Amino acid sequence: MVYFKLDGRPVKKISRKALYTRLEARINYLKDFLDFNSSDMEALSSGAKYIKTLIPAVVNLVYRKLLEYDITARSFHTKDTASEAPIEDFYGEDSPPIMRRKMFLRWYLTKIISDPMQMDFWRYLNKVGIMHTAQERLHPLNIEYIHMGVCLGYIQDLFTEALLSHPTLSIQRKTAMIRAISKIIWIQNDLIARWRMRDGEEFADEMSEYLVDDKEGYLGDKKILSEGSNTPSSSRSSEDDVASVRSGHAPSIAPSMASACPFADFAGGTQTKIWAGHGK
């Protein structure tokens, strides 16, 4: 960023065109505006074991919520929330198509706390935005922004409530983790809204850098599900992940821990959505 002085104040110069034509410029602006810095990355790194432990419960609660409404439940059959096709029998939480999607959400939530230092991290979040607009997929998926946005809000609320309820972490650590996760979710929100808005459309011919050519079913260079299959690929990590989704245990947690909820043995207090829904 280039600085210049205005009434003695340093002012950062932002290229509007770059925000719409260069993903790196957009990410740098968003991170700078949100003060996403080394403190946030340290909070994610040091708190990863707590956050990862929550993911199985978060995934189950998200899909329980999505299946509560016909407009989102229908999309698992039609791949389009704009479709009003009649559905005779909606999927249940444990049906194979939903279990497969739970797998993807689990990998996604693990990914968003992985390595925001790398540009590939942000390219992945950008791909998430593109792939839900019927672009960049062998089988088009059109999930309208209202549903994407509210789902992100629900995920953020689950993480916030669960981390705040930790019985032993200091308020400083809780705050640091919640702030870091919230910033990433809001950047993800922008990278979803970006593909639904008309802002900057005069630069449409120059937006090729935003497009990502990753194959469907891959997370970076790691294949996580075979195309057209309801079962994971032969990779050990994928097998562990399927087992963890079905059992409610995170694969990264030592077997001696009896629950995916790190605070499940904490007696007293009000149950949060995470703990109230755990084990159901």
Description:
- By secondary structure, the protein is mainly α.
- Helix content is 51%, strand content 5%.
- It contains ten helices and four strands.
- It has helices at 16-21, 23-33, 38-66, 70-78, 96-111, 119-131, 145-164, 171-193, 236-247, 273-277, and strands at 2-6, 9-13, 218-219, 222-223.
- Strand 3 (218-219) and strand 4 (222-223) form a beta hairpin.
- The model is unreliable at 215-270 (pLDDT under 50).
Question: What's the short story on this structure?
Answer:
With 280 residues, the protein is mainly α. Helix content is 51%, strand content 5%.
Secondary structure elements and pairings:
Elements: E1 2-6, E2 9-13, H1 16-21, H2 23-33, H3 38-66, H4 70-78, H5 96-111, H6 119-131, H7 145-164, H8 171-193, E3 218-219, E4 222-223, H9 236-247, H10 273-277
Antiparallel strand pairs: 1-2, 3-4
Helix pairs in contact: 3-5, 3-7, 3-8, 5-9, 6-8, 7-8
- Gross morphology: flat
Number of helices: 10
Helix content: 40-55%
Largest sheet: 2 strands, antiparallel
Radius of gyration: 20 Å
Sum up the structure in keywords:
280 residues, mainly alpha, two-stranded antiparallel sheet, 5% strand
